[in-house]
Predict the 3D structure of the following.
Amino acid sequence: MVKSIPYGKQHITQDDINAVVEVLNSQYLTTGPKVKEFEKSFSNYVGSEYAVAVSNGTAALHLCALALNVNDKSKVITTPITFAATANCVRYCGGQIEFCDIDPDTLVMDIVKLKEMLESAPKGTYEGIIPVDFAGYPVNMESFRSIANEYGLWVLEDACHAPGGYFIDSFGKKQFCGNCNYADLAIFSFHPVKHIACGEGGMITTNNRNLYNKLLQLRSHGMVYQGNPALLENHGGWYMEMQSLGYNYRISDILCALGISQLKRANTGLLRRKEIALRYDEAFHNTEIKIHVPKNDIGHAYHLYVIELDERKRIYDMLRQHNIYSQIHYVPLHTMPYYRMDSSPSVSLINSETYYEKCLSLPIYPSLSKENQEFVIKTLLKIK
Ligand SMILES: *Cc1c(COP(=O)(O)O)cnc(C)c1O
């Protein structure tokens, strides 16, 4: 019998361990040099101007919503096929969420449906949109930006699934997820199941200096410290000034050291994920299992490998009996009791609902052995 095979898993090397131990022996456990170093390497990796490391992806989303001035008059659009935190960040600030259906091929927010929503509401109804690079599929941020400009919306990219993913824009240029050439802000998570693991951790990227400065302030209690020209007064060396209502959403140097070390292997991990996805593609094409093969010019980051099939519950249970722990991403958010309570959705979300009936995420992570993947494929083809 095979040991249990999860749908995703972190990969820790001796280099990672050494990096963490080095910080434990150093002067700073938090808010030291490793935080800045992680931010610098991460913004280099995705191609953004600025990066702000925070305690987790949810904190990253909350800080973005605060920096964008989301409040109880705000209405924001996102996809129902995402992790709850994507929508919750708007609720934290008292704003309202409305869901836009997905494109059944790419599984990300359907731009045509989004246009319909925007056109059918009076101008100014919505403040922003939060597209999600679901499963690692890079949303075409250039197209979303152009609609956002037309309606005066901000764009926050939830890129938790897609560090290293990219699309080609209309100028033929590779646009990496979270580079913020088209989005105002983007966020990432370093939960162990994501590409880069810190245990807990998150990152915000942006090219907007104003937003960057706000985020730095909000990350640490809304404080402005010595040396910052934004100080309104200065009573002496001890003096710091609370200028807004911020939080403690800082990340420690210990975790950033792990992040820096992990980031060095991000591209290797991405290649492994792609290899695994291709092997699944080959195994399932010409079967009744629906697969999602991206177009050639799409740089899919494969956080998840999602299939769609009939009798999903039976298959899920049978796989578990074989120690294969597939997962469902996600229960559509508009069907959650919390969001149902709010109001019934004003638009049809039929693609999201149909997708949910059939979807299953198969094991995909860099250390998944060929043998174990073959076992997953063989078992699935046998029981389906
Ligand atoms: C993981 C995830 C988050 C939240 O990140 P945490 O670090 O767990 O708080 C937000 N959005 C998406 C799409 C995610 O997958």
About this structure: Residues 56-58, 82-83, 85-86, 132, 158, 160-161, 189, 191, 202 surround pyridoxal-5'-phosphate (CB under 6 Å).
